[in-house]
Amino acid sequence: MPIIQIDAFDTLFFRDGKPFSMGDDTWANGIFPPNPSVFYGAVRTLYFSEHIEDFSNANSDNDPTQSLQIKGIYYSIDDKPYFILPADLVKEKEDNKSILLEEVDKNDFIDSSIFSKSLQPTSLKQIEAIDAGIMNMTGMNDYLQKAKSSSYSELQDYISIESKIGIARNHISKTSEDGKLYRVNLTRLEATDKPKLKFFVEYGGLDLKSEGFLKLGGEGKMASYKRMDNMEFPLKAANSKSEIFKLYFLSPTFFEKGSLPKWINSNTLEGMFQNLHLKLENAVVGNFLSIGGFDMKEKKAKPMRRAVPPGSIYYFRLLSGTMEDVIQTFHYKSISEFETSKEGYGIVLVGVRS
Predict the structure, then answer these.
(1) Is residue 78 classed exposed, middle or buried when 0-12, 13-18 and 19+ CB atoms within 10 A define those classes?
(2) Are 320 and 277 in contact (CB under 8 A)?
(3) 308 SS3 class
(4) Angle at 85 between CA 211 and CA 223, to 5 degrees
(5) Of 156, 181, 186, 275, which alpha carbon lies 20 to 30 A from 165's?
(6) pLDDT tens track for 197-212
(7) 97 in helix, strand or coil?
(8) Which of 122, 115, 125 is nearest to 101 (CA)?
(9) 133-152 pLDDT tens trace
(10) Do the Cβ atoms of 289 and 305 come closer than 8 Å?
(11) Strand partners, 249
């Protein structure tokens, strides 16, 4: 699959899912990292800017971008890919190394989840969650192959936040409107003494030029892009003969039943996915994301939905089928629901469960 690297020239702004109306609100909330649909839209817009003769077919049955698929989104630091830290990695206080939570017999006083096992650290030291951690390819490969600890970095060390105050203008008179003052926080992908943060976007189904410019984010800021022709970094799926495995979510995903896939029975926690009979035995899920958007074809806002955040981990037991089937079915595939898979939602990697 082709990969492009995106390098922002200026600050970026990515809206969250909450409605914002100047005059009623004074603060427009932003998010970082951006959702996969941001890159999907940016690549589509880029294609039409390079093929203006096809623009009249946009959002029609003859839309040349309808085969576009986002296959992976990664951070780029020193031209190397970085991944959001898995949610079952935590840290001991005053330590910069993550440790893996492991399944132990459940204690009802501290764990009221629906699962029969509790996820706890093997160390008796105090632990805390890692907020916005990232890890390099070596660390992620080791994690998928059952490593119990790993070094990590914090995303906030690579960005800086800049506030902007603005006011709406009348489209006709071009004068400012009373009561329309607002403030936003913009993200600059640079920080002192750190390499510049960029993005890798892996895609398919569309031909782009080898390099150029595109617009990114809510304010349409310019960024450059270039195709990384000699770069390929597929992470290896866990090589295991065991009937137990984990799924790591590379990107946010939508499930019809909230945090539970629609093919999993809410009572037995079992289900069939394609030809695999699976049982969900545990999960580590971060705080839900509220994601909406705008439907260009229907000319209206998309319904707001809750999404499982990237980095979330689901532990499964294979009841029928083989691990080769598991890897073929899941690794680098999307299991997002609501027809959002082509936008890059719900991409999972297969790992060994501890």
Answers:
(1) exposed
(2) yes
(3) strand
(4) 20
(5) 156
(6) 999 999 999 999 999 9
(7) strand
(8) 122
(9) 999 999 999 999 887 878 89
(10) no
(11) 348
User: How far is 125 from 115, CA to CA, in rounded Å?
Assistant: 24
Burial 111-141 (b: 16+ CB within 10 A, else e): eeeeeeebbbbeeeeebeebebbbbbeebbb
3-state SS of 217-276 is CCCCEEEEEEECCCCCCCCCCCCCCCCEEEEEECCCECCCECCECCCCCCCCCEEEECCE
User: Does the pTM exceed 0.90?
Assistant: no
CB environment 51-71: b (16+ within 10 A), e (fewer): eeeeeeebeeeebbbeebbbb
CA distance readout (Å), 301 to 63, 258, 304:
21, 21, 9
State the Cα angle at 299 between 295 and 301, rounded to 5°. Answer: 50
Whether residue 49 contacts residue 172, with contact meaning beta carbons closer than 8 Å, is answered with: no
Contact 273, 321 (CB under 8 A): no
The single-letter DSSP state of residue 15 is: B
Query: Each residue of 61-96: pLDDT tens digit?
Result: 899 999 999 999 999 999 999 999 999 998 887 776
Neighbouring residues of 94: CB distance < 8 A, sequence distance ≥ 6? none
41 membership: H or E segment, kind and range: helix 36-50
Residue 27's H or E segment, with its range, is: strand 27-28
Our CA angle for 96, 118, 276, nearest 5°, is 100
